Amino acid sequence: MDITEFIARSIGHWRSQRSVHHLAFGHFEAVQSEIEIVSLRPEDSSVLDLCQTHSIDPQTVSSPFRMTWEGQSDWDETEVLAGSCILVPVPDPQTPNRGQLIRDQGYAETMAAVGDYRITEDNAFILVTAYDRAAAEEKIWFINPNLRCRVSCIKTSAGTGVVTASFSTEIRQET
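Above: the chain sequence. Below: its structure as tokens.
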């Protein structure tokens, strides 16, 4: 599987159940979310802006998309977790199962981010992103076309300590 196929399989509306362990606080959190993943054209102005910000040739991108989410946590039931970000994969021309993923908003910190991805032989997508104060590692794989799993780990920026670990199941919803 390459990044184009992985993104194509990810397009849609997903219901997510995530278990989060905040190791620094000794706290467990359950989060239920709705996630919408839609493809974008490479010539979309938001994609072009992101490419320009990171000095990326728009001709080298593959399957850009927007991910929007809205969720509820049992940690603070009054707070609605919501957001949206643009994600632009830039495959490595020498190694098609590797590349960079550019985001206008990161996972561990709310800032623009560039991560390195690879797709393993068993079709798992692995993304490692360094931020100013943290580093994130994510792994996403499909159980079947309508069920995927995600694990993530937020580490200290030096990579010496785990701050947060989570596991999600995401089920595609009929539209």
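The chain has one domain: 3-173.
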